[in-house]
């Protein structure tokens, strides 16, 4: 008992020290700006830094990080700092800024705007506002938004999509999951019942939850499916936001799948230090960014409280250590730009202070050590604490009798959380479930094999397997190579691929000249379809989906599309490439080649077009770049095999990976383009000799 207390004190102190480092860095270098830029040691002021697109919509020039951190100060018992922060908020923060902000982000992080359009993902905050202020308007409007989403569920599957058009109510993305886009909808249905005591929300949650467990949950994975055709997975990767879901399952009393998914996530963090923003079903990186998200810590906290299994303290310990080792910088903690390289990004989002430190501190605290009775509160999606006493502040909302009842065979109906199914501190229960997922990602297998050998059970052999192809899904970089004079193949931009359209790794595409689409976003009818015929269209990212733009431009006669990022200052030199995905609908009809350029490369390309009027380009995989010798990669995989065990499809895999490079001239150069480049070079040199001759 004594040693666990000392262990708790040690980690609490460490977490407090880390919090001080992050919070003081914000206050010293950034306040009153919205966020800290921990690499530049200054504040991020919207408009003064390069535009990062949607993520900047959280920044309302209202000292976002200060406000988002207020109740963390209370929970961490920093009451003097809290008082000081409240004074600063009252004295300095203004909401009358002429600036467009994200409704969702402002609601969950600030809740300052009274005239926002109600959003599904807002019921907790708006209901709290109504019950505290006595004015029902906020709760009523937020409830209407929840009702619309419920009405819009797919009646066959009981699933909802991830993006809805708020003007006409049509689903924009019909893929259905529990992560990005929809996470807080499910969370708020459950928590609205807990906070407001209204069973309508519980019925709805239970109906969706049954559907999620039927179609999306494929333990330990949670995979997006099509809402109309839910037996079909729409992608082979998961996003990191779904890491909150095991925590919600704990509240639901459904511990087994929570333990399974959490264990899977833990193994991904063992492999990559943090959860990458997206990772494949084989636990490889799909998108390597990690903006210090708290969801994994959140689920770890809930699982520890539900099971009492000290295993989850170890998980928390690893989160603390990894943050200190891989994210701590002199001016705070920096997001990781790519978990594969460990490079940092100049951002520390406010949720890091609002959520991460709360969940970590709570994990290592006994209830009696906290300044408040934590059981009297419910966490919002941003980990802000709302008192459950609000449910009695006002009678529950009217019950809608036409609501379907939860499935009768559902053990958990009308339980929230279920006392029968929340497991009383029984660590062995969790361990039994985890054990079957222990070496899911391969991490830890080698140690297992060698400990077996030490017992003299197996003889070990080192086996090498050689292949030419990568063993996992990767973002295959493309290039946009400028072929016509004066570029002559010398100007090359790295571009991102798409999951749909021509597969340029398998099918070559000839040289085409480029032309800007009108409108540039290609989100409305194409006005210059006649001119676009036979050209590769340039289209600005944003306003509608990549697939919608591609379809429209293909119909208009474009032979390909180069999308250009709308976020100012982005570049392939410092932003990891990603793969454009479809809109959840079949994309087989899109057959033209597609490539994505970050804005710096896009600006150079459009400037070239303005200057030279005719710019011919070639789209091809980077490894096939014209005029480059290509090192061929051989993947040689060594593994330890038990004697006599050489069966194909062996699952005990990689312990060591070597890459041998074999220099070999690329024999697959594009002849059409190569001869065009030669021709152009000849024309160009004759032009230089005789400047008067016409081309
Ligand atoms: C937070 O702002 C909230 O948790 C939100 O619901 C989604 N995730 C971010 C942090 O990852």
UniProtKB/TrEMBL annotation:
It holds the Pfam family PA. GO terms for molecular function: calcium ion binding; mannosyl-oligosaccharide 1,2-alpha-mannosidase activity. Residues 519-605 form the PA domain. Its cofactor is Ca(2+). It comes from the Eukaryota. Its EC number is 3.2.1.-. Keywords: Calcium, Endoplasmic reticulum, Glycoprotein, Glycosidase, Hydrolase, Metal-binding, Unfolded protein response. GO terms for cellular component: endoplasmic reticulum quality control compartment; membrane. SUPFAM superfamilies: PA domain (SSF52025), Seven-hairpin glycosidases (SSF48225). Gene3D superfamilies: 1.50.10.10, 3.50.30.30. Residues 662-695 are annotated as: Disordered. Ca(2+) binds at residue 381. GO terms for biological process: carbohydrate metabolic process; endoplasmic reticulum mannose trimming; response to unfolded protein. InterPro entries: 6hp_glycosidase-like_sf, EDEM1/2/3, Glyco_hydro_47, PA_dom_sf, PA_domain, Seven-hairpin_glycosidases. The active site is at 105 (proton donor), 183, 277 (proton donor), 295. It is an enzyme of class 3 (hydrolase). It is found in: Endoplasmic reticulum. Belongs to the glycosyl hydrolase 47 family. This is alpha-1,2-Mannosidase. It comes from Cyprinus carpio carpio.
């Amino acid at each position: 008992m004594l040693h666990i207390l000392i262990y708790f004190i040690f980690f609490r102190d460490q977490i407090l020290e880390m919090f001080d480092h992050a919070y003081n860095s914000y206050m010293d270098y950034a306040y009153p700006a919205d966020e800290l830029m921990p690499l530049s040691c200054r504040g991020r002021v919207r408009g003064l830094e390069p535009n990062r697109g949607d993520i900047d919509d959280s920044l309302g020039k209202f000292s976002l990080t200060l406000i988002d951190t207020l109740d963390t100060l209370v929970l961490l018992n920093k009451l003097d700092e809290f008082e000081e922060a409240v004074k600063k908020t009252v004295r300095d923060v203004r909401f009358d800024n002429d600036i467009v902000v994200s409704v969702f982000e402002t609601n969950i992080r600030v809740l300052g705007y009274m005239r926002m359009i109600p959003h599904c993902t807002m019921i907790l905050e708006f209901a709290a506002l109504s019950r505290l202020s006595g004015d029902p308007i906020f709760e009523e409007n937020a409830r209407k938004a929840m009702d619309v989403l419920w009405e819009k569920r797919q009646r066959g599957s009981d699933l909802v999509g991830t993006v809805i058009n708020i003007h006409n109510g049509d689903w924009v993305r019909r893929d259905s999951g529990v992560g990005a886009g929809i996470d807080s909808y499910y969370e708020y249905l459950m928590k609205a019942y807990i906070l407001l005591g209204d069973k309508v929300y519980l019925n709805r949650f239970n109906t969706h939850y049954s559907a999620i467990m039927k179609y999306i949950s494929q333990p330990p994975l949670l995979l997006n499916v099509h809402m109309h055709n839910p037996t079909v997975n729409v992608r082979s990767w998961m996003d990191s936001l779904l890491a909150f879901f095991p925590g919600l399952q704990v509240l639901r009393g459904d511990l087994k799948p929570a333990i399974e998914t959490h264990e899977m996530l833990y193994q991904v963090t063992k492999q990559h230090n943090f959860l990458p923003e997206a990772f494949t079903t084989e636990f490889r990186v799909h998108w390597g960014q990690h903006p210090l998200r708290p969801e994994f810590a959140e689920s770890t906290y809930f699982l520890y409280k539900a099971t009492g299994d000290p295993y989850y303290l170890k998980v928390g310990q690893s989160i603390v250590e990894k943050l200190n080792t891989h994210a701590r910088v002199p001016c705070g903690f920096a997001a990781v730009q790519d978990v594969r390289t460990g490079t940092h990004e100049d951002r520390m989002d406010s949720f890091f202070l609002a959520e991460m430190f709360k969940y970590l501190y709570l994990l290592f605290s006994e209830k009696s050590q906290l300044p408040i009775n934590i059981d009297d509160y419910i966490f919002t999606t941003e980990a802000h604490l709302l008192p459950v006493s609000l449910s009695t502040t006002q009678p529950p909302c009217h019950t809608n009798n036409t609501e379907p009842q939860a499935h009768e065979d559902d053990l958990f109906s009308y339980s929230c959380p279920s006392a029968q199914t929340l497991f009383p501190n029984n660590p062995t229960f969790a361990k039994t479930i985890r054990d079957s997922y222990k070496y899911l990602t391969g991490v830890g297998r080698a140690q297992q094999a060698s400990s077996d050998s030490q017992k003299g059970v197996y003889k070990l052999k080192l086996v090498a397997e050689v292949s030419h192809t990568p063993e996992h899904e990767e973002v295959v970089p493309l290039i946009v190579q400028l072929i016509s004079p004066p570029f002559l193949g010398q100007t090359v931009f790295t571009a991102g691929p798409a999951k749909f359209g021509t597969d340029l790794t398998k099918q070559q595409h000839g040289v085409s000249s480029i032309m800007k689409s009108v409108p540039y976003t290609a989100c409305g009818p194409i006005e210059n379809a006649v001119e676009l015929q036979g050209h590769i269209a340039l289209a600005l990212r944003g306003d509608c989906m990549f697939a919608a733009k591609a379809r429209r431009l293909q119909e208009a006669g474009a032979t390909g599309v180069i999308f250009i990022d709308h976020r100012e200052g982005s570049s392939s030199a410092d932003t990891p490439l990603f793969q454009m995905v479809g809109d959840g609908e079949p994309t087989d009809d899109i057959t033209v080649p597609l490539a994505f350029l970050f804005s710096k490369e896009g600006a150079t390309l459009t400037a070239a077009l303005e200057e030279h009027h005719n710019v011919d380009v070639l789209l091809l995989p980077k490894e096939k770049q014209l005029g480059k010798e290509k090192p061929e990669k051989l993947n040689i995989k060594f593994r330890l095999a038990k004697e006599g065990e050489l069966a194909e499809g062996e699952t005990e895999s990689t312990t060591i990976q070597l890459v041998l490079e074999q220099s070999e001239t690329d024999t697959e150069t594009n002849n059409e383009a190569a001869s065009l480049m030669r021709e152009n070079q000849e024309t160009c040199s004759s032009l230089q000799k005789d400047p008067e001759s016409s081309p």
